[in-house]
Amino acid sequence: MPELPEVETVRRGLEAKLTGGVVARVQRRRADLRAPLPRNLKHRLEGRRLERIDRRGKYLLFHFDTPTVLIVHLGMSGRFVLTAPPAPPPALHDHVIIEWRRGPVLTFNDVRRFGLMTLTRAHDLAAHPLLRGLGPEPLDSGFDGPALGAALRGRRTAIKAALLDQRVVAGIGNIYACEALFRARISPRRIADSVRGERAARLAAAIRTVLEAAIAAGGSSLRDYVQASGELGYFQHAFAVYGREGEVCPGCDCGGAVRRIVQGGRSTFYCPRVQR
DNA sequence: CTACCATCCTGGTTGC
DNA sequence: TGCAACCAGGATGGTA
Question: Could you point out which of A49, A110, A122, A192 has its C-alpha 20 to 30 Å from the C-alpha of A66?
């Protein structure tokens, strides 16, 4: 479900409500997510104070004192819900419940259990296997045409597939790959290696602007994605091509229709007339 | 390297 | 209305 804008929206919502809190109680109700939940989750977190929440790509990084870091990936259907204490009776697919000495109760709910939660030490963070190979953060100031072009150099795969590869750029998923390519007027089928120079600059700018616009809208709410506060993001109404097969190409007078193709088993939406 | 495939899991939607 | 097939925002590991 969640790509960078949704993860960032969750990060902001949780950080605002939870920073400074001390963990009072951890319940691990179901451990068989994408990777087994740490057996010592309870002992490592109880009594720890949350200092801040960072994000790297689609990963949330909860920094506690000790120093302990809780790494979370939401997978396709993972979400965090905040509720007023006391902890509510566990609902279906509530896998982890974190209570604090004061403040709201944090529940991790994940229907499909593709999510992941693990612990590490802060000083190992950059070298952690989950984070080590990630490409540049698209919202960092250093992310520009030359940086993107360098990451794509020599890749003979389609640019759409390359954007989904977290080693190329961190945080982009199927929706924002489609949307960024449309904004940059680049065909999703174009060989990644051929995206250089001015094209790479256009694509880097499109990635940045579409992600920033989505964050400003609170992310996209498809299916069951909601922000921690329970509000719905509304960027899904601003999609130019995603999910719009057959509709008139938006934003220009080309008269073409949005087409859906399958690349690597995933749906790609684009306008063949304006994206070359 | 690359492309392609299956896999993990559940639930909503679609089509008969 | 019932039921089965298909589809879904991710990541990984295997194969050719």
Answer: A110
